[in-house]
Known about the structure:
Layout lengths: L4 E5 L6 H12 L2 E4 L1 H13 L7 H10 L2 E4 L10 E4 L2 E2 L7 H10 L3 H15 L4 E5 L2 H5 L5 E6 L2 H14 L6 H17 L12 E4 L5 H14 L4
The structure holds 2'-deoxycytidine-5'-monophosphate (DC).
Amino acid sequence: MLVKTIALDGPAASGKSTVGQLLAQELGFLFFDTGIMYRAVTLAALEAEVPIDDETACTRLAEETHIDVRPPTTDDGRTNDILINGADKTWQIRTPEVDANVSEVSTYPGVRAALTQKQREIGQRGEVVMVGRDIGTVVMPDAPLKIFLDASAEERARRRYQERLDRGEPADYEEVLSIVRQRDQIDSTRDVAPLRPAEDARIIDSESISAEDVFRIILKFAQEKGIA
Ligand code: DC
């Protein structure tokens, strides 16, 4: 039986979430942003004052932290409520401090093993648009449609910078760009599940096309594959 999963991978701020949400809405699928889980573990470590370089403690947090994604209960621009051990942490997982530490936490094999297992359980139910870095290569290697969405670091930093301004938060473009570059470097050079397109992924460069156009391109692929 065809497990209708769309694997959508790519670097930070490549537009995966926007496009993934449009696809999920159109197809009536679940939208599942796996980056949330790595962010939740990072936030849990920061809040518990666990040193980020303590791999064993971070792995324990990945195994024990309860992460839940629910429909939004507040009208403040959020698409979901993100609950960590029952507390609403929707915006706390998006702070520059989490941005600056999440890539390191996601290099730890124990953290990845714990989170990958939870992600597969959800992916195997089907009718999911799953967004991340290693969905096509590791989490759901049998996904019938794999997309790798790319754009330059400058363009991606500009998008993230604008998102912060839109939320009324202070932002510095050069700082955002430097964190994007640093995260690209860590995400693509780590030993376990590095950021890279699966061999059978379709690569889309979103540099100068709108999220709406990327959505339409992927929808066409999904129709060709019998997913839509
Ligand atoms: O997509 P994002 O920016 O929210 O992801 C946050 C971090 O989580 C990113 O720097 C790398 C990591 N990540 C990962 O290693 N594997 C995934 N499937 C998703 C995210």
